[in-house]
Amino acid sequence: MPTHVPDVASGRLSPDEYISNFLDIHPPLDRHQALVESDRCYFCYDAPCVQACPTSIDIPLFIRQILTDNPEGSAETILSQNILGGMCARVCPTETLCEEACVREAAEGKPVKIGLLQRYATDVLMEARDGEQPFARAEPTGKRVAVVGAGPAGLSAAHRLAMHGHDVVIYDAREKAGGLNEYGIAAYKTPDDFAQKEVDFILSIGGITIEHGKAIGRDISLSELRANYDAVFLGMGLAGVNALGLAGEELEGVADAVDYIADLRQAEDLGTLPVGARVVVVGGGMTAIDVAVQSKRLGAREVTVVYRRGQAKMGASEYEQDLAQTDGVLIRHNAKPSRLVTEAGRVTGIEFEETREEGGRLVGTGVVFTLPADTVFKAIGQTLVPAALNGSAETIALENGKIRVDEERRTTLPGVWAGGDCAATGEDLTVAAVADGRIAAESIHLALSTPSAAA
Amino acid sequence: MANLTSTFAGIKSPNPFWLASAPPTDKAYNVVRAFKDGWGGVVWKTLGTDPPVVNVSGPRYGAIHSNDRRLIGLNNIELITDRPLEVNLREIKQVKRDWPDRALVVSLMVPCEEHYWKDILAKVEETEADGVELNFGCPHGMSERGMGSSVGQVPEYIEMVTRWCKQHSRMPVIVKLTPNITDIRYPARAAQAGGADAVSLINTISSIIGVDIDSFAPIPTIDGKGSHGGYCGPAVKPIALNMTAEIARDAQTRNLPISGIGGITTWRDAVEFMALGAGNVQVCTAAMTYGFRIVQEMISGLSDYMDKHDFETIDDIVGRAVGNVTDWQYLNLNYVAKAKIDQDLCIKCGRCHIACEDTSHQAITSMVDGIRHFEVIDAECVGCNLCVNVCPVDNCITMEQMVEGVDPRTGFAITDQYANWTTHKNNPMSKTFVPAEPAE
């Protein structure tokens, strides 16, 4: 086998190609398009789309408000349930949520474009009011709430708490607020620095301060927060990344997909970002697809996603899979990584063993194949780092590796609520995190308003 | 292929599609274009006395649109022709000479004094036009000067002017009626009494199409003000159909030829008007929206329809539905129908349920055994048809006649015996009392 010369380089494309490859993947609707599309909504009774929305936005109402050319009123309907309605309009997998439930999907396979309509309304409001939000704070309550993590869950909780008159301090490990909206989501889903615009929009309600560079377990402790605040909301997401468990994983040529995406999102100039000519992504979720598509759009020649189970089990939605394949990404199923090929202290390829499911259990068939790779991305899931939560004080109960919460997002620790990816509440989606934050905030507000019930 | 030729009030045309007197027929240029595209005839835009009227130089039309800007209704404040009479007459004469097989009727509107009519009729006759149409319909502008609809609203005036026209002309006289009255039969009878060869209807309906809610002025707005106009287009068709039928089934006017006008956009609309008694149809808004070429679809659609039904001439269609238009009091109260939802077609939008639940008879479920399911409750369904009308899916909900058994809503046995309000037991005026049998 000839020596493989690693090809990892930046500037593979012309400046114009970088721009066009990372343009808004779903161009927004203009006013006329929104009026026409809104006319397609049947204003269903007890609408299935609302039931499919984790934040239960009154979708028929907001669409009817667009129909009557009242987009700002429409945006208020959206934002009153989901203050990150702008981001959710961009990143929600609507094809598996509201739009899958739309009766026009059943009728003709063409659901009302709910996501794009939501984006239209929220864009109009944010533009028309120059970032001023339509909500005002209630009389100050004098209560203080600590929120850990300035991602979708934390921002949603903080906004709702501030609206109810509480003072909120958010602690976030990063330099910028937004969490995965800022550091994680594919760049072509949220161009033009929308994540930061939305953060500013949310914070404009007042009563929320953010302490950046403060990670729980490192700079602050949960026991400290519980002692100093009337309530605590944990929404710090998943800091850990699952490992392949193969020798050579620490060598050059192997990277965490989430880190690479974060670098990409923060890059001033995409032309400076190195990308391998041959990229192999291990995993089958949204992150795997995001890193694969973005690698391709940065100029990688061959990008292969390898998932250990069958297509139906992939975490990435069918829409995302189609997007990847349209972009020229090859998706291979039923193969698990078995060995990293290394050469001169560097990974140059990865060997896989084919798999099949036997009674739900995954077994190797013994058949192996090797893919040469300049870069291997690990995208096999993130994990909660529980040590960060547990100092010398009482420990918080977990469930399947995440924080256990009840319907109101209360943890097992009095006075502590949790939501978003770090909590065991269901799907790891932006919109689900926003719902958690709002639900927890309402529960906290109720607890703080009724002293006898307070923690 | 079916024979589409038409003879209306003695005027021949190769098909029953005429352009109505309106902006599209103001000049030879437009009319010639229309004839080239296949229109069977035109009614030339209304001529008046010299000096001609002056039209506004601002917006003359306003519209109601659907959200995709399909034009549903149009409002017009343009007056009659603003070109000199002499120019119009010269062009009419030339066009008729060049297009002898097409119908060319001239619309007229002059003050209600005999000499005006006598004078203009002589001039029109000289053009060899096929007939005249008396514009007693326009509700805006000219009506303020004692013409148009202000004549059409007074049956005695209609009769008087029609009689003058018949006296002073050998041409067929069509009287164009205004819908801005309470009972269309009175002006139609007056026209007939004056000797009219036919009536045409409807002219436009008095209307304000909208208000600009920022400037608080009616639309269209001319220098900050607006005036009512005449409403036309697809939205007015139901009104026109009813008025056509009222004249067609009136004992006095049932033999009076009718030229149907009002929102006709397709061959289907035309067939509906003809079925209710119109001998031909006149079109305006559809042409103003899409151009003259639409007549080609109308011709082929009508022809295919006639072939399918083995109709040889348009007379096979004219009036065919008139006998089925009746007064409410003669509707069969023993006829029972229930809505039926095709569960395979249902997309579960729930509109039938909420319409029935909120605004009608609580006769459609929303949930059955904990599952979203829409089904008609026969014991509550009065057969009103609202669910059919609000359902977004074709043929998903249908009205099915009950032909036997017991109506679970009333408990009365289904009977094929006809019984209407005049015979109903609850009607104190009824003469023959036929009670429905209570079920066993």
Overview of this protein structure:
The complex is a heterodimer of chains A (455) and B (440). With 455 residues, chain A is α/β, with parallel strands linked by helices. Chain A folds into three domains: 8-21 and 241-381, FAD/NAD(P)-binding domain, CATH 3.50.50.60; 39-128, Orthogonal Bundle (Fumarate Reductase Iron-sulfur Protein, Chain B, domain 2); 144-238 and 384-449, FAD/NAD(P)-binding domain, CATH 3.50.50.60. Helix content of chain A is 34%, strand content 20%. Chain A contains 17 helices and 19 strands. In chain A, the strands form six sheets. Chain A has a five-stranded parallel sheet, with helices on both faces. A five-stranded parallel sheet of chain A has the order 7-15-9-10-11. In chain A, a hairpin with a 2-residue loop joins strand 12 (335-343) and strand 13. The radius of gyration of chain A is 23 Å and the shape is globular. The termini of chain A are far apart. The mean pLDDT of chain A is 94. Chain B has 440 residues and is an alpha/beta fold. Chain B folds into two domains: 6-324, Aldolase class I (TIM Barrel, Alpha-Beta Barrel), CATH 3.20.20.70; 328-423, 2-Layer Sandwich (Alpha-Beta Plaits). Chain B is 27% helix and 19% strand. Chain B has helices spanning 28-37, 85-98, 114-126, 149-152, 155-168, 185-193, 237-248, 267-275, 285-290, 294-308, 351-359, 386-390, and strands spanning 6-8, 11-13, 17-19, 41-47, 61-65, 71-76, 103-108, 131-135, 173-176, 198-201, 205-207, 210-212, 217-219, 229-232, 258-261, 278-283, 337-341, 367-368, 371-372, 397-401. In chain B, helix 3 (114-126) crosses helix 5, helix 5 packs parallel to helix 6 and helix 8 (267-275) packs across helix 10 (294-308). The termini of chain B are far apart. At the A-B interface, helix 2 and helix 8 of A face helix 11 of B.
